[in-house]
Write a structure and sequence with these properties.
Blueprint: H1 15-21, E1 31-38, E2 44-47, E3 50-56, H2 58-70, E4 75-81, H3 100-111, E5 116-121, E6 134-136, E7 139-141, H4 142-159, E8 163-166, H5 173-183, E9 190-197, H6 204-210, H7 230-241, E10 246-250, H8 256-265, E11 270-274, H9 276-287, H10 293-307, E12 311-314, H11 317-326
Helix pairs in contact: 2-3, 3-4, 4-5, 9-10
The protein binds ligand PBG.
């Protein structure tokens, strides 16, 4: 056998060497924890398809957030479950300054001023049609939706949101949101645009959690086609022009190439949303004993980071933080 000069295994020979040479790390500060809220008192309801993830009434939410802060998680993305009676075709409840969502932001901010609160801007949780935009004759109307989204973002900023997260995929929404925020003195409120949000089957458990599935049709005229990568670059260019502070790719695991593309091409930080279905798959396989849930959680989050995400929204955030703290 020939003398081998190059032996990559030397750089893997001990835990210490591997630690020294690790190219990727994921800090707890880089995670955002999505949390579901609902009206009521004393409620902590587990989402069937997302074991370990709950819908909280505001009193319980405060306790949950406190626990997260203790484990080092300080950023949260809030998603409301709105009762059917309050849903209509204009998503009017989203503009109610006394509604569940602004109330939650105000409560959290006054209890935990240093927590980072990210909001969701889209009509679907409040819409009787279950779509992210306004529906007229079965069509999702872009430009009329923009005014509603802008007003929604303003209400959220007034309540104390730190980062506005438009998840609706209407064209031009970052611009109208930036403009309305600036006009009202909220220059310091950031926008994390859902830049490349794909029409994905991985959102299933989330729609169960919020009862927000479209009543008819699908979201393919506004969310992106999973076959496309170049189009994500166009979306990113437009978001940057319109004043976005972060670009987001969603889902994460099946779209690592898109995360890589955006993070190599653009200077803005790229966030990735490790969505409900990605969480559900790992949890289900772990519960069946088919894989080691903790190992696969860390591996998946690390892979998203390695692909180029600076920030990750993940239902694993709290569990990851607790695991890191205990090891
Ligand atoms: C809708 C919205 C969705 C998610 C976040 N905001 C679902 C959808 O587009 O139907 C999905 C998040 C997840 O699956 O974890 N505005």
């Amino acid at each position: 056998m020939e003398h081998m000069l190059r032996r990559p295994r030397r750089n893997r020979k001990s835990q210490q060497i591997r630690q020294m040479l690790a190219e990727t790390s994921l800090a707890i500060e880089e995670l955002i924890f999505p949390v579901f809220i609902e009206e009521g008192k004393g409620i902590k309801r587990e989402i069937t398809s997302m074991p370990g993830i709950y819908r909280y009434s505001l009193d319980q939410l405060l306790r949950e957030v406190e626990e997260c802060l203790e484990s080092g998680i300080s950023s949260f993305a809030l998603f409301p479950s709105i009762i059917d009676d309050l849903k209509d075709s204009l998503a009017s409840e989203s503009l109610n300054p006394e509604g569940l969502y602004p109330k939650a932001i105000i409560k959290l901010k006054s209890a935990f001023p240093d927590a980072i609160l990210m909001t969701d801007v889209a009509m679907d949780p409040y819409s009787s049609d279950g779509h992210d935009g306004l529906v007229e004759n079965g069509e999702i109307i872009n430009d009329k939706t923009l005014a509603i989204l802008a007003d929604m973002a303003l209400i959220q900023a007034q309540a104390g949101a730190d980062i506005i997260g438009p998840s609706d995929m209407m064209d031009g929404r970052v611009k109208v949101i930036r403009e309305i925020l600036d006009k009202h003195g909220y220059q310091n409120v950031s926008i994390m645009s859902y830049t490349a949000k794909y029409a994905s089957g991985f959102y299933g458990p989330f729609r169960d959690a919020l009862d927000s599935a479209p009543k008819h049709g699908d979201k393919k005229t506004y969310q992106m086609d999973p076959r496309n990568q170049r189009e994500a670059i166009l979306e990113a260019e437009l978001d940057i022009e319109q004043g976005a502070d972060f670009l987001m790719v969603k889902p994460a695991m099946a779209y690592l190439d898109v995360i890589y593309q955006l993070s190599s091409r653009f200077v803005l930080p790229v966030a990735a949303y490790n969505v409900s279905g990605e969480y559900a798959m790992i949890k289900a396989a772990d519960q069946k004993g088919w894989l080691d849930g903790n190992q696969v959680m860390v591996e998946s989050l690390t892979a998203i980071k390695r692909a180029g995400a600076k920030v990750i929204l993940s239902y694993f955030a709290k569990e990851y933080a607790q695991l890191i703290k205990s090891s």
